[in-house]
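Forwarding the complex inputs:
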Amino acid sequence: MESVFKKLSLTSATLILLLLTSIFVVLFIYAKPAIDEFGLKFLTDPRWGVTVQVDTPKVDKQVATTEQVTDEMAQNDNLQTEDLLLDDSSDNSDSLLTDDEDGSTANTKEVYGGFVPIVGTVLSTILAMLFAVPIAMGIAVFLSEIAHPLLAKPVGVAIELLAAIPSIIYGMWGLFYFGPLVSKYVGGQSVSLLVAGLVLGVMIIPFMASLTRDSMNTTPAVLKESAYAMGATKFEVIKDVIFPYAKQGIIGSIILALGRALGETMAVAFVIGGVFTFPKVVTDPTVSIPVVLANSFAESSGMSMSALFYLAVVLFVLSFAVISFAKFYFLRNKNEIFNK
Amino acid sequence: MRFLINKIVLGLSILAALIGLVFLFWILIDLTIKGVGAIDWHIFSNDLVNNGLRNLLIGQFMLALTAVVIGVPIGMIAGIYLQEYSYGSKYAEFIRNLSDVMMSAPSIVIGVFVYAIVVNPVGHANGWAGSIALAIMMIPIVVRTTDDMLGLVPKELREAGIALGAPKYKVIFDIIIKAAKVGITTGILLAFARIAGETAPLLFTSGNSQFFTMNMNQEFPSLTVAIYNLATMPDENLVKIAWAGAFILTVFVLLINLLGRYVIREKK
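Prediction (whole assembly, two chains):
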């Protein structure tokens, strides 16, 4: 019985390792067709689901290695899209197209590239951090140093409760209240990169603030008191005693919040717009990786499905890297911060 | 000068805190106004097909509860391994870190993963897939809580149990877990609250259903997925239902959180 339970417990613990590896492996397998088809170009190709005309590879190409063929095919794609774009803008596109068909046997294929959602993810996360970090730091300093304990306690609990609110609520609020307000005073549509970044920022503020407050509170009172005894002002104590002491924990909590913002779906899905275009200005709508997955997954199959899995791999690797970085560099001895 | 800078910086900090709090309470107030306005008896006694929330509320609860049934035993036993059986080995430390990283994995990726391993072979979305996705999200949280809470139990209790001649698993289940019961319960409650409000892992795993069903082999009604679908509908009535659902969900999640805090306070 004892040895059975011991084995069982080891198996359960190993299951975590298995789960994490199998997530990666399964995503990779499903993404394989897209990875083979588009390679690393996927990461920098802004076209999504664009149908392009491809000349069927000539006979002599088949002798060459597959790699070269895909390379040439990709180059052909690029040329062809440029042609297509030109065709669209010119008036006599019909005649041009028929000319093409007469000249060579052309067939069409869909091209997928993840550049727009990748950029959208990164930009909305950066915007969110720009907005959230100062405010979360302010709240943390306020709670741990400025506010009277009688005030800090309930406000602290309120902040922690707000961190527990499901992200879909933040998204809905963004769609119905915040978005229209931003579009009224800043301009642009009520769904845009700006709104998405801000809603994301509002969502991670409570999380970041409570983690930061916790690590600020670990500063020993003796250190603060001796600084005050030297005649330091409160700001000097915060800047020269608390920040250096809690530095690792603070940076760690910022990166953790960043990881959360990167993979957030629902808060962003309502307000980013979900269109595959580059935002020229910050008030333009765009799309992010989780939102693409949420919106297009159900209707996809074949290559488009595989391309979505490719995006999921990119997102998973990105957030895995960010979180492991936070974990191993900044929170090495501060595991308690993860318990939130 | 120093005092002036001090005043300015502290003022800015208070201002930042105020801005943050204003935003957060703004959300809550909007939610309450819209939500309370949309709640009436009708939505509790009708299913989505008749503009009610009954099947969704029960469905979401079932999904989360099944996830607890799947996830908690695995998470707890893994946590027990890390604290009681590993004797601080490198492997245990590795699993511990991995579990922490997994806790922050994007929830939509977990949804995609479960789609690939469950929904795709079966051929259609089903309730089990949704629960499995939620359970995967829950396991690392439970591991972490169990690990931490068992770590707080004094060594003397273990030694006393073993000195009485009890086998280790008996010591763990009859002494250590009992001593750490409150902390673990709180952790599980908080984890439950967290997964109950998740949307992204359910979108393509459980799907959504307009009708009342208890059959987890079929597409299963989910409150959060329904909110996501309804909120963007042009029909005012459907948006109203979405707000009512959002309000009920938030109140539920906050109540469970408060309950968790209350349980742990009682102990102290």
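The first strand of chain A starts at residue 48 and ends at 55.
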